[in-house]
Amino acid sequence: MSLKRLERFIKWVTNSANRKLQKPPKGSGKRIVFLDRDGVLNVDRHVTYRLEQFELIAGVIEGLSLLQALGFEFIIVTNQSAVGRGWISEHDVDRFNQRLIYELNQNGIEITMERIYICPHDPIFGTGKYKKKCDCHKPRPGMFHTAADDYGLELTECYYIGDKMSDVLAGFNARCKTILVETGILDDIHEYPGVSPDVRVKDLPKAAHIISGELAIEQMYTTGKFVAPFGAEICAALQLTHQGVNSASFVYTREQVSKWQR
Ligand SMILES: [Mg+2]
Ligand SMILES: [Zn+2]
Hints:
It contains nine helices and six strands; from the N terminus they run αβαβααβαβαββααα. The chain is of the alpha/beta class. The chain has one domain (25-208): 3-Layer(aba) Sandwich (Rossmann fold). Strands 3-2-1-4-5-6 form a six-stranded parallel sheet, with helices on both faces. Helix 2 (60-69) runs parallel beside helix 7, helix 7 packs across helix 8 (230-242) and helix 7 packs parallel to helix 9 (249-261). The model is unreliable at 17-25, 227-233 and 235-262 (pLDDT under 50). The structure holds magnesium ion and zinc ion. Zinc ion binds at residues 119, 121, 134, 136-137.
């Protein structure tokens, strides 16, 4: 890590802490990270439903464990238009989801089936009841809105981690903070010109580091001081930017702080 960069950062933190600070807007107080499923949690097989093809993406448990330790809860939002097209059934999706939840639970991640929101529709290629221009098909924000109603969430305080540009746009439409991970099939980048995530990182552990770094800053603004153990995580986030994973992420963090202050 560049020592100069770290020194500059610490100076900035200290200066910020000494200013008269406004608290972040009051929300539900719940810390929520929305997650896409295929390409974020499990390996994307294009049509992903076969149990024998189930595979957790490397680093997922590490990333989720860190977020959970910081007090975050998870909600999964997944488009399953293969159902709408008649390729697989809702039962196939449920079975696969059960496998995923089991695997996460086995590794200490607390999440239940109720926390998975599914859009089975396909507005263009769907058949029967599934051919529908619904509100839930990402990049529309319907699933986020339903979850917000169910759990009393302030979506502007939530994160959304996805692997496609349609995810980024969905998160944007829902007014969440968006993180793009590079563990999926990023095949729709040309379909969404001008759309960009708040942060783009290699994988879920790095996304978790960015979030924990932001949390440290948020806590600083709330309490007026830099709270351990998040300080170490900020450094981790900094190290990531230094390694060239995402040169924009640190800038984003500062911008985010100014957003909170508005
Ligand atoms: Mg995906
Ligand atoms: Zn839908």
